[in-house]
Write a structure and sequence with these properties.
alpha/beta
């Protein structure tokens, strides 16, 4: 028995009629762009896919005609701020078409960039929730940036304007602070940027830098969307060294900024952060130097004041001591003069008494002679004359002896009178000690001297002459 059948073309025609009846008009479809193949002729061939748990569960061919492609592409990229291409989740308006030869195709004639931005915002919110739940938001905040960071690991593109601005501002400061900057190159936008930055983070951490800096010199929201990547945020949070971001955005804060140790708006502002730390340290050192200088100046002034007081006390003490010594010298000299005067006076008195006795004796003798002369004038006169002459010679001799024994006469002949510390006249060298103060009396004045040597004129009987 023959079976009923349909030819393939008839089956395809029936499906075509059913599809066109089911989808008579255009409709909006949410999907992810899979393959992306703009052609030189102007048409763009692509595939739309949907994934679940990392697996593609639906796929359809699509195309944009050349008379719509350039206009849609420019509109999307201007509004969304990122290139239209593979990997984006989009909301597109399509016309379902079925071809007996090629099957179902979707002709795209419109695209909603606001939907794509909304999807990114939703992904960002979910990433923040996951990071918060995992404790990643505060990991970097527990790390402390060194007081004077010197070794800086920079993650950026070598040709990026932000990197150039950072280096120029940091190394070209008037203060001339020194830094060691090591660049770890990475892609800073696009689908591959997160993985590239993560790889650079690992290399930078191995360099044991004082701080790791992620620089990006600004861009559109879509250009900077890579900094909202969950895996990149986890890599930043778990880096064992402080990570500082300067992504160059003024309006929004990206997830990379949230998990980093700290963040600033621009690379130039990041350079100022380090310069300000060094300037603050400079100011602290200057203040400390000024305080030390003031303390030293005060200490020196106090020492100078104390030294001047000490010198004044020494001068006063020396002055008093010299005055006392001068008074003692004057007193000693006065005592010597008084002693010499008293001795001279006693000698003069002795001479006067001798002279009185001589005169009395002469007077008595003359009286006796007068009596004798009365009895024998001639004989007596002769005898008396002889005797008077003899006695007069004796008197002259005695006067000469008395005059010769006068101390003043002796001193005037070059001799001196020596007294000890007790102002008593020294008659011998025995008993005089080395270093003893003695007085030396001349006819015209007195000297004070110190004994430096004592020599005896008497031989030592206890020594044996071995000559």
């Amino acid at each position: 028995m023959a079976k009923d059948y349909l030819e393939l073309v008839r089956l395809q025609s029936m499906i075509k009629e059913g599809v066109e009846d089911l989808f008579p008009g255009k409709l909006w479809v949410k999907a992810e762009i899979g393959q992306w193949n703009p052609r030189a002729g102007g048409h763009c061939y692509l595939s739309l896919i949907q994934s679940r748990a990392g697996k593609v569960v639906a796929e359809a061919r699509a195309m944009i005609w050349k008379w719509n492609f350039l206009q849609l592409k420019e509109f999307f990229e201007k509004t969304a701020g990122q290139p239209l291409g593979a990997g984006l989740t989009v909301l597109v308006r399509v016309q379902v078409n079925f071809s007996e030869l090629y099957g179902i195709s979707l002709f795209i004639d419109d695209i909603d960039p606001a939907f794509t931005l909304g999807e990114k915002a939703l992904e960002r919110k979910r990433a923040i929730e996951r990071l918060t739940a995992g404790g990643y938001m505060d990991m970097q905040k527990e790390l402390v940036l060194p007081r004077l960071p010197y070794r800086l690991a920079v993650i950026s593109s070598r040709t990026a304007a932000g990197y150039g601005d950072f280096c120029k501002h940091l190394l070209g400061s008037e203060e001339g602070y020194a830094f060691e900057i090591t660049l770890f190159e990475a892609l800073m936008q696009g689908e591959s940027a997160p993985a590239s930055i993560i790889s650079a983070l690992i290399s930078a951490a191995e360099s044991k830098a004082d701080a790791i800096l992620i620089l990006r010199g600004g861009g559109s929201d879509m250009d900077l969307s890579c900094f909202d990547d969950f895996d990149l945020a986890v890599a930043i949070a778990t880096t064992p060294f402080p990570v500082i971001t300067a992504i160059g955005h003024e309006r929004d804060v990206h997830i990379a900024d949230m998990v980093a140790n700290s963040s600033v708006k621009t690379p130039t502002a990041l350079a100022d952060l380090f310069l300000d730390r060094y300037a603050a340290e400079d100011a602290a050192i200057d203040e400390l130097s000024a305080r030390i200088a003031r303390a030293l100046q005060s200490r020196v002034h106090d020492r100078e004041t104390a030294l001047e007081a000490t010198l004044a006390a020494i001068r006063l003490s020396l002055g008093n001591k010299l005055a006392d010594q001068s008074r003692l010298t004057d007193l000693t000299g006065s005592r010597i003069r008084v002693a010499l005067g008293e001795k001279s006076s006693r000698r003069a008195q002795d001479i006067s008494r001798v002279e009185g006795r001589i005169r009395l004796a002469l007077s008595r003798k003359a009286s006796d002679m007068e009596s004798a002369m009365r009895t024998s004038a001639g004989r007596i006169r002769y005898a008396a004359g002889s005797r008077v002459g003899l006695e007069m010679s004796r008197v002259a001799l005695q006067e000469a002896l008395i005059a010769a024994s006068d101390p003043r006469k002796i001193l005037s002949m070059g001799y001196v009178l020596v007294t000890g510390d007790d102002n008593k006249v020294l008659k011998t060298a025995e008993g005089v000690r080395l270093g003893e103060r003695i007085g030396v009396r001349f006819s015209d004045g007195t000297l004070r001297a110190t004994v430096t040597e004592v020599r005896s004129e008497h031989p030592d009987s206890n020594k044996v002459n071995i000559a």
